[in-house]
């Protein structure tokens, strides 16, 4: 931000919205819609977690949804005053951290899915999925936080360094998610091959339906929904690489439509899928 705008606190002829980091006032209707979606999903996740006694998943998804809701509260603050520094910080911090919590819930679900369908078909031991990939997400967040701290300093010479560290953190997150996708796809393929090798006499469909909470059909729906949820978060993380590559206030960062489609819509779709197609069959049947 040029020095002449450092003291701006509201939109005036001397402090136009075009000179803010985003260059626009966030769309009120869209931000209210996403806030409501995330808030309702957070409540639903808490209630479902209590009902089915699924703590880890409920904590991760409800916390991620709640952070997203708070983040969109920050964007609503920016709608009324695009120069509001507090609103900017709230939405940046919450919207950066929240998807990692949502991904943590998916890593935990993958662990239970492997336990349920057969650990022998997985390249990793079930307990290693959350340990490895959640640790990688934490490292990614730390990198982004360090980069953000450097970028926020008044040292102009370090600004590019801070931006590069942020991009490195996002890229690392994308890479670890891609590895997880490959492992999950391989596990799915091995499970499918194992099932095809069995004859119909080996499989009692009725007994399997009773073993899976909610039945086999709901189990399949949950698996498809979870795969869609993971891919939606993955798309969002990929989008953030070019968004941040140009630094704060870059042309890509100032495209509100791209943000609403590739960040807001993707993350809300992920949360909705994990809430509507709640994976109770995976968690309860794997216990």
Label the overall shape. elongated
Output the number of helix runs.
9
Strand content: under 5%
Structural class estimated from helices and strands: mainly alpha
Q: What's the end-to-end separation, in Å?
A: 54 Å
Sheet having the most strands? none
Query: What would CATH call the architecture?
Result: Up-down Bundle
Low-confidence stretches: 203-210
What fold name stands as the CATH topology? Rhopdopsin 7-helix transmembrane proteins
Element-by-element helix/strand order: HHHHHHHHH
Mean pLDDT: 89
Number of strands: 0
Number of domains: 1
Descriptive report:
It is a multi-pass membrane protein. Keywords: Membrane, Transmembrane, Transmembrane helix. It is found in: Membrane. InterPro entries: RTA1 (IPR007568). The chain is built from 9 helices and no strands. The protein is an all-alpha fold and 287 residues long. The chain has one domain (25-195, 210-286): Rhopdopsin 7-helix transmembrane proteins. The radius of gyration is 21 Å and the shape is elongated. Mean pLDDT is 89; it is low at 203-210.
């Amino acid at each position: 931000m040029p020095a002449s705008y450092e003291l701006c606190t509201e939109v005036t002829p001397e402090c136009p919205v075009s000179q803010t980091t985003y260059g626009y006032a966030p769309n009120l209707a869209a931000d209210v819609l996403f806030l409501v979606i995330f808030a309702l999903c957070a409540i639903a996740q808490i209630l479902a977690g209590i009902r089915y006694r699924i703590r880890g998943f409920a904590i991760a998804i409800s916390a991620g949804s709640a952070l997203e809701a708070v983040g969109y509260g920050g964007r609503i603050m920016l709608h009324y005053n695009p120069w509001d520094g507090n609103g900017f910080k709230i939405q940046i911090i919450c919207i950066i951290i929240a998807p990692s919590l949502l991904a943590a819930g998916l890593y935990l679900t993958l662990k239970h899915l492997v336990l349920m369908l057969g650990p022998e078909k997985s390249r990793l031991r079930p307990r290693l999925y959350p340990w490895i990939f959640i640790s990688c997400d934490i490292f990614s967040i730390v990198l982004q936080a360090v980069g953000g701290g450097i970028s926020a300093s008044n040292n102009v010479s370090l600004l590019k360094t801070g931006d590069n560290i942020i991009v490195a953190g996002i890229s690392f997150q994308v890479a670890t998610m891609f590895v997880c996708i490959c492992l999950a796809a391989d596990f799915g393929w091995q499970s499918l091959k194992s099932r095809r090798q069995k004859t119909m006499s080996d499989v009692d469909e009725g007994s399997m339906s009773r073993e899976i909470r909610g039945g086999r059909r709901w189990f399949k729906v949950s698996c498809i929904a979870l795969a869609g949820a993971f891919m939606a978060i993955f798309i969002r993380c990929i989008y953030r690489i070019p968004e941040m590559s140009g630094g704060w206030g870059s042309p890509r960062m100032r495209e509100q439509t791209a943000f609403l489609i590739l960040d807001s819509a993707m993350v809300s779709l992920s949360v909705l899928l994990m809430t509507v197609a709640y994976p109770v069959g995976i968690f309860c049947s794997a216990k």
